[in-house]
Amino acid sequence: MGREQDSWVSQIRKGVVEVVILGLLSRQRMYGSQLVEELSAHPELAISAGTVYPLLSRLKKAGVIDSMWEESPVGPPRKYYRLTPTGESELVEMSMAWRSVSRAVDTMIKGVAE
Amino acid sequence: MPLQVIGELGASSRAVAERYMDQVRTAMAGQDEAVVDTTIEDLAEHFCAVLEPASTSSDVEWVIAQLGPASAFGDDSAAPDRMADATRPAGRILGVPYDWRFTPERVASRWWNPRDQRIFMPRAFGIGWDINFGALAVKLHLIEPDAEDAPFSEVTDRAFLGALLVPVALTAFVVGTYLGSRFALPPALPSHWNAVGMPDGYWSQGVAFGFLLAWALLPTLWAVWAVATRRSPLTRAAIIGVASFSSALAAGVWALTLATVFASPVSPALPALTILPCFLVPFAVLLGLARAGRSAEVRRDIESPTRGVVSHD
Asked: Which of A30, A93, B9, B238 supports an S-S bond with B108, CB 3.0-4.6 Å?
């Protein structure tokens, strides 16, 4: 893959990282390293801890997620993240937008490299 | 009062600033990611330095007008120059970053940023790179990247006072050992050591001691002032960090001076060893403060678990 394609794929990943994290948090509250571990199961997304933690900070400042320390049955307390009502609304809007864009793009590249 | 973070701006002002930063990021697509991140970080710091929580969207637009169009950042070579034009000199020379804009907050963001994985960050003030002690602490599993919502924001006054004792104690060491040994010291003291640990430069006793005393005392007094006047947590942590660095350096060089005078010949490794505490001391101080902040957050959440959290379970 050429440099321009690398950059293009990198831009796509950057664009989806927020909706991916909000999507994971909509299922259950999660702590930081748990999110990183979950995302590492999807190497195609290439989302590292260096991306996740600054983004969590930004999302929290924006009021989209909230965090709270909780005791852990094993080991030290953990900081859990979860969606706020604002975050839930944003996730719905982002999911609708993503599906709409994805459908349109799929239509246009149908048959290519299948 | 300057902003701590862009999020303190009103919704419309924040939207204007964030839209500009997004445009800059888009314009810089394809450039080195670290350079893009540093540029965006610098822009955010610039907005924080010149705007206030009450700034209007017109104020933000005025700042943006000074910075120039976002598209200009798309030119790899122009981006640092534009930043320099808009603020004060900052950029890169032969790939080495330089920055002459000094604020304690910039020092804190470079020395303690556990959410950023980079160990070496462009220097907050000067040429080269600073060590990101926060990233180092995360790599050593001494703290989590997200241990604090905002660095040092929950650190108690008592913890700051405890951290302040470090530069105070190091400065007291310099003064105390001088007072205890001044009559036994020769009139000229070593001021420079060569690669094998032998002194190759001398200053008069008064100048050599006075220089080291100023190096330790002035930043320590600055830290005392910051703690006494209860500056913002980030500012207090930054100034205590700077004071810890400079007082550790002064104490290390003073200890080397005494070792050279009273225990010569010294080990060739000794001059290098005096440098080590300059990094270990601020690392320990900032880590201690961050852990105190983490403990305060844990207490806050676990002792009052209903704090503004929406239940999903």
From this structure: B238
